[in-house]
Amino acid sequence: DKGTYPFFMLKEIDEQPAVIRRLVSTYLGERDDYRFDPQLIAKMAEADQIYIVAAGTSYHAGLAAKQIVEEVAKMPVAVELASEFGYHLPILSKRPFFVFLSQSGETADSRQVLVKMKELGYPSLTITNVDRSTLSREADFTVLLNAGPEIAVASTKAYTAQITVMALLAKALGQKLGTDDGKIDLRSELSLAANAMQTIVDNKEAIEGYAKEFFETTPKAFYIGRGQDYFASLEAALKLKEISYIQAEGFAAGELKHGTISLIENGTPVIALITDQATAGLTRGNIKEVEARGAKTLKIVSENLAESADQLVLPAIASVLSPLLTVIPAQLLAYYATIQRGYNVDQPRNLAKSVTVE
Ligand code: M6R
């Protein structure tokens, strides 16, 4: 039921702060005890590498999750596209552990990998929004996203829920292995993130205005960033192209000059995400480069790195968790651009909610 919302997508965008809070109360106990199956954490701790296998938005959540797991639990993570991985297996580590990220739990591309990895005897976990879905039944372990049904084809709350669950798992794993240096207080960071998300969704009008200014007529657009901002850029671009049909690309900011900058024309929208202190200056340099070639730039920046001309300033959270926040304006920009261009937000052409063919 959409309630008073015109589209499921907007409802699902708005639900994200509540989803984060629910995940914290589900999986993080009062005494900083993580409420996951102890056998799951023990199995993960035996591994020498985690392989995250997924498609689409879930793959993008996996890219963000890799950085979190490596920073918190110090375990190496590989992130793989399900449709590629199953047919072109890389040389695996000695003791791999497989994590299947899938909102629906029904994605055929991911399932064929799970079937093959089970045959090889490797342990597996499915992180899904749908209890007793195919991937959940077939993996050794399941962790639920508890995000409530996601109806819009464009995935929103599943992305932030997947990153949150992976962060909670990373903490549990780090605790078990003794590798977590405690630099990230996840309870307080996730509470900050949920509050900050709420502030962004409460101030949608500004973003609606930017959608009009940047996307109303353009045939193409770029999102750029570095590190987590690059991975969030990939998701931001997918959201935009999937529903508004604007040809959008997420790009590593430093790579532009190696080719793609030739696509910048007068008025081409370039949206830059800046949440990482280490690379903020470099990305700002890239913004200047595209502006010099006529690009129209929109800067989405965390508070601690903001400058006066930046249009969208987000509260600062631990930078490894930044995709939780930067994705929200990107989801809203895609939503409003789609409405302004006159398309159906919830049911984009040529797409199904769950993709059950390879
Ligand atoms: O159900 P899954 O998470 O396995 O689905 C994977 C992709 O098909 C899905 O994320 C798709 O990319 C979305 N439409 C993106 O918004």
From TrEMBL:
Taxonomy, superkingdom: Bacteria
GO biological process: carbohydrate metabolic process; fructose 6-phosphate metabolic process; protein N-linked glycosylation; UDP-N-acetylglucosamine metabolic process
Keyword Transferase: yes
Compartments, record wording: Cytoplasm
Keywords: Aminotransferase, Cytoplasm, Glutamine amidotransferase, Repeat, Transferase
EC number annotated for this UniProt entry: 2.6.1.16
Main location: cytoplasm
Residue ranges occupied by any SIS domain in the UniProt entry: 40-179, 210-348
General function of this protein: Catalyzes the first step in hexosamine metabolism, converting fructose-6P into glucosamine-6P using glutamine as a nitrogen source.
Protein name (record): Glutamine--fructose-6-phosphate aminotransferase [isomerizing]
